[in-house]
Design goal:
The chain is 22% helix and 28% strand. The chain is of the alpha/beta class. It has two domains: 298 residues, Alpha-Beta Barrel (TIM Barrel), CATH 3.20.20.80; 91 residues, Immunoglobulin-like (Sandwich), CATH 2.60.40.
Length: 401
């Protein structure tokens, strides 16, 4: 027997496609236009055509502004839906407080205005209010912040019964779950950003009786130790990262069918800094990495016709020299480049990776050696192998000269 959790209609202006969550004997499923819709999504602003080619069907955004309508138009033209996210201020950002009624009301009014503008667009799949707003939240603002999300959820449900509304949190733990259930019971679904805790997330979601999505997942940034890797984060090679995405998707997304109704990988776009950003599935120069191929295989159920190269192993030789082996294409087909990035400042500021520039870049073979002309310092060496079909593999290590 099917029990409808959320019923949507077509009585709002524009041409919205109705979306609903339905509970069946095997759990929840999302339906769009009456058809089952499993979200195969990504966080992205670029590389949209490649996402469609890979079998993706949805985009997640983190904010709304005057350019959002045009972005929705573009996505609709490509057959992509959009989970439209409203950025809510975190407590303390620019002096913002959830106890300041004037500022909170201003934020509410802004969201309401944008919902009215966009609710009739056919690309809209769902709304989310806030992204990890609970992080760093003072205890005295907890009830007010969750109460604000509750008020926004009710407003959006009234304004737009065609599309469900949720909020996005950073992983899950008991205190967060209790506060959310107490102060924001009207939220219809939950988005959870989970990295290192993804494989065990379902164990912490037991009290959540509604559908949820994994709205960010990927490799985690490990804690640093002054005794390891010069006190800098250890970054996996691109082939290993692909397997991290594969395991997370199979176990925590597909493996939780009926509870998890879809996911948004982080981050489909090409890197904006350096040579191979920690989370990006494409290089700054546009080549896709193993993680993009893995998602395509999982989304389509078919092997990728022209796969990216794979990192095999790296062997430390004498001095600042390594033998780095990749597989892919005929012998000699791969073009290898060495990039040296100075590691003399913090690599991350919050969630953003800083552009530290290149101290050196040049073509190399299987044997990679740091040029004598490089100045003294601590560096991260990237070796990138590119093939002729827009694929690449990346290995890196940290060294001191």
């Amino acid at each position: 027997m099917i029990a409808t959790l959320l019923v949507c209609s077509l009585d709002i202006g524009g041409n919205p496609v109705p979306v609903e969550f339905v509970k069946t004997a095997s759990g929840f499923e999302m339906r769009r236009g009456g058809m089952v819709y499993e979200v195969r999504g990504a966080g992205a602003q670029k590389e949209l055509e490649s996402l469609v080619k890979a079998g993706g069907n949805s985009i997640r955004t983190w904010g709304v502004d005057d350019s959002t309508k045009a972005f929705l138009d573009k996505c609709d033209g490509l057959g992509l839906t959009v989970m439209v996210g409203f950025w809510l201020q975190k407590a303390g950002d620019g002096g913002f407080s959830y106890l300041d009624q004037a500022k909170v009301q201003g934020q509410y009014d802004s969201v309401e205005k944008r919902v009215r503008e966009l609710k009739g667009h056919p690309a809209v799949l769902a709304w989310t209010v806030g992204n990890e707003v609970e992080l760093g939240l003072p205890k005295e603002q907890e009830a007010a912040m969750w109460g604000h999300i509750e008020k926004l959820s009710k407003m959006i449900q009234k304004e737009d019964p065609n599309h469900p509304v949720g909020t996005v949190v950073a992983d899950m733990w008991p205190d967060k779950m209790a506060a959310m259930l107490k102060y924001a019971p009207s939220v219809e679904f939950l988005g959870v950003n989970s990295y290192g805790g993804l494989l065990s997330l379902h164990e912490r979601m037991g009290d959540w009786k509604k559908p949820y999505m994994i709205t960010e997942f990927g490799p985690t940034v490990p804690p640093t130790s002054k005794d390891v890797n010069f006190g800098l984060p250890v970054e996996a090679d691109s082939t290993a990262k692909g397997e991290i995405y594969r395991e997370g998707y199979l176990k925590a997304i597909k493996g939780q069918k009926g509870k998890v109704v879809g996911s948004y990988v982080f981050y489909w776009d090409s890197a904006s800094v350096g040579i191979a950003s920690w989370f990006n599935l494409h290089l700054k120069t546009g080549e896709r990495l193993a993680s993009a191929d893995v998602l395509q295989e999982l989304w389509t159920g078919k092997p990728v016709a022209n796969p990216v190269p794979a990192f095999i192993k790296a062997e430390k030789l004498e001095g600042l020299k390594w033998r780095v082996q990749f597989r892919g294409g005929m012998p000699g087909d791969l073009k290898r480049t060495l990039y040296l990035v100075p590691e003399n400042s913090g690599r991350f500021q919050g969630d953003f990776e800083m552009d530290q520039g290149f101290a050196y870049q040049g073509t190399v073979g299987e044997i990679v050696e740091v040029p004598a002309s490089v100045k003294a310092g601590v560096y991260r060496a990237y070796v990138v192998a590119r093939n002729a079909t827009n694929g690449a593999a990346v290995w890196n290590t940290v060294f001191e000269k």
